[in-house]
User: Which sequence fits this backbone?
């Protein structure tokens, strides 16, 4: 199975600040990388698919980049509703695997 | 609009089985795969498998092979996930999710079903 490693595991940030989360795959996954947001008590929500495509309805302050083994999720100006846990997922091969998550907390 | 609605919480004893349902609406049911993902308390996301509603073919994570069965009923646009030989480690929220474009990207999620395994 392909291992996905996110960093950091948690971070503190201020409203209006810029946040960058990194996801590294154990082998090349080209651009088969998705990002999800999960708030406590809720199901995950798709933010970014195919490494950089914004899912319909997701604010443009979210962006994704990368290819091969290294990927980033960037929130350009953090809003109060963005405090959540973020997961990356590879879909290059079965089974699709997730990173361990990055919790974004209020500074 | 696409909606995915799951059945309610379950409490089971070790060794028992559980069957969770997932009803889809707002699109042509047979077009997109449905996946199952679970999340143990305080833990991350774990993919369990997927079913093709068109023909019923399935793909399961090796970890669950032999214990999980995913089926579908096209007459009611419902997918089922049955997990047998339950143990305490199976206590988790189980999610179904519709594939975005049959690319294993999970575009539309159900609300989750808490399965508690306890004696």
Assistant:
């Amino acid at each position: 199975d392909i291992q996905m490693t996110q960093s950091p595991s948690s971070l503190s940030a201020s409203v209006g600040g810029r946040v960058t989360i990194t996801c590294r795959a154990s082998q090349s996954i080209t651009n088969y990388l998705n990002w999800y947001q999960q708030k406590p008590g809720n199901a995950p929500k798709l933010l970014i698919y195919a490494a950089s495509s914004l899912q319909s309805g997701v604010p443009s302050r979210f962006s994704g980049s990368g290819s091969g083994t290294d990927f980033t999720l960037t929130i350009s100006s953090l809003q109060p509703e963005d405090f959540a846990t973020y997961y990356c997922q590879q879909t290059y091969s079965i089974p699709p695997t997730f990173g361990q998550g990055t919790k974004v907390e209020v500074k | 609009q696409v909606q995915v609605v799951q059945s309610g919480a379950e409490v089971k004893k070790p060794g028992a089985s559980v069957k969770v349902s997932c009803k889809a609406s707002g699109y042509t049911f047979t077009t997109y795969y449905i996946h199952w993902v679970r999340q143990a308390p305080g833990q991350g996301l774990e993919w369990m498998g997927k079913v093709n509603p068109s023909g019923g073919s399935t793909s399961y994570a090796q970890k669950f092979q032999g214990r999980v069965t995913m089926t579908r009923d096209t007459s009611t646009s419902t997918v089922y996930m049955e997990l047998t030989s339950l143990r305490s480690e199976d206590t988790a929220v189980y999610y179904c999710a519709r594939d975005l474009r049959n690319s294993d990207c999970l575009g539309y999620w159900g609300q989750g079903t808490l399965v508690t395994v306890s004696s």
Remarks:
- The two ends of chain B are 41 Å apart (CA to CA).
- Chain B touches chain A at residues 44-47, 59, 61-62, 95, 97, 100, 103-107, 109-112 (CB under 8 Å).
